[in-house]
Design brief:
membrane; elongated; 77% helix; transmembrane; transmembrane helix; 214 residues
């Protein structure tokens, strides 16, 4: 009987730690599952937030680009509006001048009196450039300039302030319009481009000639 009691006590003493170990293992496994699940959920939420922030950044960048483009267009739009206002004033100015001549029943013959052709040079209709390439010169103004003997970019590029004042008066042009539209600078630019084009054409003709004479 003593042996039986000892065996039972031994079995009970052994079985108690096993229960604890099993409970500990189950709790530890549950902890790991919870921890891993929480980490996965946190990572998923982080990725979602990151994707949301990235999308917002992209949208903000698009808005910045759009605002920049609109801001860049403002000076251009303002310049075009100023040009339209100037054109309107120019038309009114020329209309008023034309009406005065018609009412007076006079026929105006424009003469190039006062223009310093010794300085700006002389040209013929055969040498004529397309003056309408210069901002502010339309068909009407080009005809008036041609009537004065002004046909080329080279001539306009040599205008002095005095020449500009005289021509403005002769063609009944809006005051300061020639300076504001930068005729002289634009004529210089067009003259340079024309010279380059002529040089290129001359080089091509020379090469063709050399090929045909070989």
């Amino acid at each position: 009987m003593t042996n039986s009691i000892f065996i039972n006590i031994t079995q009970e003493s052994i079985s108690i730690p096993v229960v604890y170990i099993e409970a500990f293992v189950m709790m530890f496994v549950s902890f790991l599952i919870g921890y891993v699940g929480a980490r996965l959920y946190a990572n998923l939420q982080y990725k979602k937030q990151t994707a949301t922030y990235d999308q917002k950044i992209i949208e903000l960048e698009k808005q910045v680009i759009k605002l920049k483009e609109e801001n860049d267009r403002v000076p251009e739009d303002r310049y075009q509006k100023d040009r339209m206002d100037q054109d309107f004033e120019q038309v009114k100015f020329q209309k008023r001048a034309f009406s005065e001549h018609v009412l007076a029943e006079t026929v105006e013959v424009i003469t190039p009196q006062g223009i310093n052709f010794d300085k700006i040079g002389r040209a013929t209709r055969e040498e004529k450039d397309d003056l309408q390439e210069i901002i502010g010169i339309g068909p009407y103004t080009e005809t008036k300039l041609n009537d004065l003997g002004i046909y080329t970019y080279d001539q306009i590029s040599k205008f002095s302030d005095e020449d500009i004042a005289i021509i403005t008066d002769l063609i009944k042009f809006f005051p300061d319009r020639i300076k504001n539209d930068r005729w002289v600078a634009k004529a210089n630019d067009l003259k340079f481009k024309k010279s380059q084009q002529n040089d290129n054409n001359h080089s091509k003709k020379k090469m063709m000639y050399e090929k045909t004479t070989r």
